[in-house]
Every structure is written in structure tokens, then in C-alpha cells.
């Protein structure tokens, strides 16, 4: 075992790197500038966390969303590792405390948003100590050619130039065309960077497109798909109004759904995110305001109710499915009205840029780029060739040659020759299901191994970015399907088990959770009911 593998085992308890991680980590440890293009779920956060921990070098991680950074800090702390988050949501005393941790050498990883680069306390700190590594997450945000340009990302280059000693700079993104890669290198001021393209392909994702749906039919197709699939998922809509409408429609059909958009108050958005993480909702219906800050690994499906503005945007949003490596579905439901709506958005964007005082040449350049991106996603919808091949071709991914040689991916609607059934308002559950294959997989066993090591359910949940409910489900499956040594009595007292058994005997359908739960006190959870049901199943009492 080499030195990096030893550190990987020491800090993260992983025996092996994921494909593409080790060479990126080694380049960062060696002090080189790096551009790394890794798919969502490819383990990019470890690529900048491990060098900081292994070398004890002070590392600043710049990321666009507080929730995403908080998840990573919590995950590190759950492993017994130190990291701090400095942002506008914490008090001045908390900022000072974090700075002291860094000055004392207790902490080597600092998370912050680019807007905070002018923070006085941080500037004073970096005048005293040496900042060794700057890791820029979601680096495509620095490029106007990217799908999610953030002006504050342009502060990073000047911030780096202002430091007494130049750190090594690493840039990470999951979606970037060759033009955006060049922009990242230029706008961050990278010096002879090593460029790693790990590939965009996500073999566990299945891509489906259904075009030319009318609005009402699209709602009913969403319902059919959601009812046919296990687990929780995201439905993306094009407007706030549409998220509310779809959410109300699903709830009326007994699907637990909630809307999420930028119009919600911060506290409301936080509550929705937390409940979704815990699988309290089967579906979150969202605008593009949702996703980047939510690190939920077991999303089983992403459905787009409407065409996104670009291939980059679509692949990033669809890529939120199946980050645990399990089979998941990405379905785009298209209407003829979508293109017209996108043209309207571009015209509104031009009007806004005019009001901001941008010159005509710049406005036309940006608008033409938007039109080109719209044409690319339109071609994806209308294409008669393998969906995966179209995606990989767009990103100039070398893996596209493998797909061509194999005459497709055999994992999308085109390659599977999938025949969509006629949409009706009478939706029956599990009719022609896009069901997810269930097996005791690596993601379940990763949970099991952590449990065997003595970690609590809550610690595993934080480390794996999965809900507590999901961790319980993993352990319950292990208990039943693999004869796992799960001590049920640690989670369910004899009195609670007696109450659950009594409720089961009185329920109309004792194989389903809800009819049992309504007969029990609030302090008995669904997870405890599942465990008792699993115990009965294991001893073959039914």
C-alpha cells in the first residue's frame, strides 16, 4: 500500500481510490495547479480534502452555496476531522473562533463562498499565515460561457495575486465544454495546470426523453413515472408557479410532494431540504434554485417537466440522481411550448443586459451563446441516436468512441427501443414501471461496514450524505437479506415491539407502514416499524 492509500484509509477508511481520484490527489500533493473534470458523484471533494489532511497544508475551499459547504464540514466532523465554514450566516464571534482554530494549526480546511474573499478577518489571517492550496469547486461559475456564471468568482484571481506566497490552485467541475475549460484556466490565472478529464459517463443513469406532450398530459406522465419508481426524486419545472401546481397535483394523488423555489424564505427552504434528506417527501418539485446545495446520494429519479436551457444545465441537474452508484432514472418530458418559452427568457435576458448598460456587441455575443446552447439541448430531445452518445459528444468526452463502437449504451430509451404508453388520466400504480433493480449492493454494504466499525446511525448519515431513514433501510435489508447481525433491541424496546405487533394485528393491511403507524404513538417511528416487520420476515412468520 503506497503513502496516499495509507492516508486514504487513515482519514476516510476507504481501501481504494475511485477511478481518477489518485492521480488528481497526487498532483495536488505535489503542488501543481490542476483542472479536474469529474462527474457528479465521482468523489471530487475527497480530491481536495485528502491533500489538506495528508500534508497538513492550509487549504481554502471556495464553493457557491452554504448548504453544500455545511454538508461537507459536517461530514468531515462526523469522521473526527476538523474543518471550518466562514460565511455571512455565522456571528462575528464564530468567525473569530474559526480564525483562532486555523492560526493554532488545529484546522487546515477552510470553506467559504467567493463573496467572502474580502472578509477583513480572513485577509488579516492570510497576512499572518501561508495559504498553501486554493480549491475552487463548481469552477465553471467563473466562465461567462458556462451555464451558471457567478460574477463573484472573478474575485478569485485577484485574491490569489494579493497573497504573499502564491498557493497551488485546483479547479473542479462536473460539466464543462472545452471552451469553458480554457476560460477556467484563464480566469483563475492557473499556471501550467495538469488537466484531468475523468469522463462524464455515469453508467448507472438511464436516460429517457418523451417529446411533444401537452401540459395536462405532462402532469399525468409525471404522476405515472413517480408512482412506478422506488425511492425519492426531483421534478424540475421552469417556473415557481409550475412547481406549486405540480406539487399540489401530486399531493392530491397521495404522493408526498413539496415545492421548492427561490421565492421561499431561507428558513422554509432549509426545512424542505432537511425533510427531503430524511425521505419525508417522495418528490421535491423545484426550479433550478434547488440542487447544488443538497448533497443527497440516493435520489432515484430526476424528471424534467420542461426543457432546460443547456446541455450543461441538464446534465448537472440530471446528475443529481444516483450519486450512490445505484441504478437511477433521468427523464426529460418535453412540450412544443418549451422552445418558445426559452426564446422568451433569452429576450428578457437581453433587455436586462441593456438596462445594466452592457454594449450591443457584448449583449449579442452572450445571447448568441445562449441560442447555441438552446439548439444543442433541442437536438438532444429530437435525436434518434443514443442519448448517452449525444451527451458525451457534446462534452468532447473520449468515452464517446466506446459508445459508438458498441452501437449505443443499451441504457437509454433509444437503445432500449422503449415504447411510451399512451398518457391517460387513469394512472395505475406500477403499470409499465421504470422500476429500479433492488440488490444488496456496494452502497448498502458501505453503510453496513461503517456500522460494524461502531459508527452510529447519525454519524453514518452525515458521512455518507444520506438520510437517517435511508441508513436504517440499508441496515434492515442487510439484516433480512444477508442475515446481518443487527440487534433490533437496540432500536426497539420490548414495549414498543409489543405495541407495533398489536397495531399490525389491528391494521387493515399489515404489510404496509401507514395503516400501522396511525395506530401507534407519535414517538414510534417508521424505522422502528420496519425493523419489527423485518424481524418477523426473518423468522418467516409470514
Explain what the structure shows.
One of its GO terms (molecular function) is four-way junction helicase activity. It is an enzyme of class 5 (isomerase). It catalyses: Couples ATP hydrolysis with the unwinding of duplex DNA by translocating in the 3'-5' direction. Strand 12, helix 12 and strand 13 form a beta-alpha-beta unit. The protein has 22 helices and 13 strands. It is an alpha/beta fold. It has 3 domains: 3-197, Rossmann fold; 205-405, Rossmann fold, CATH 3.40.50; 442-538, no CATH class. The strands form 2 sheets. It has a 7-stranded parallel β-sheet with strand order 3-4-2-5-6-1-7, sandwiched between helices.
Secondary-structure topology with pairs:
Layout: H1 3-12, H2 21-29, E1 34-37, H3 44-55, E2 59-62, H4 66-78, E3 84-85, H5 92-103, E4 109-112, H6 120-128, E5 133-136, H7 155-162, E6 168-173, H8 178-187, E7 194-197, E8 205-210, H9 215-228, E9 232-237, H10 240-252, E10 257-260, H11 266-277, E11 283-286, E12 299-305, H12 311-318, E13 328-333, H13 337-355, H14 360-382, H15 387-394, H16 400-405, H17 442-452, H18 457-464, H19 468-481, H20 494-506, H21 513-517, H22 526-538
Parallel strand pairs: 1-6, 1-7, 2-4, 2-5, 3-4, 5-6, 8-13, 9-11, 9-12, 10-11, 12-13
Helix pairs in contact: 2-3, 4-18, 5-6, 13-14, 17-19, 18-19, 19-22
Quick summary:
With 542 residues, this protein is an alpha/beta fold.
In helices, the fraction of residues equals: 40-55%
**Which sequence of strands runs across the widest sheet?**
3-4-2-5-6-1-7
Can you tell me the CATH class of the largest domain? Alpha Beta
Average residue-wise pLDDT: 85
Amount of beta strand: 5-15%
The global form is: globular
Alpha-beta classification: alpha/beta
Catalytic activity: Couples ATP hydrolysis with the unwinding of duplex DNA by translocating in the 3'-5' direction
Domain Helicase ATP-binding: 25-194
GO molecular function: 3'-5' DNA helicase activity; ATP binding; DNA binding; four-way junction helicase activity; hydrolase activity; metal ion binding
Keywords: ATP-binding, DNA-binding, Helicase, Hydrolase, Isomerase, Metal-binding, Nucleotide-binding
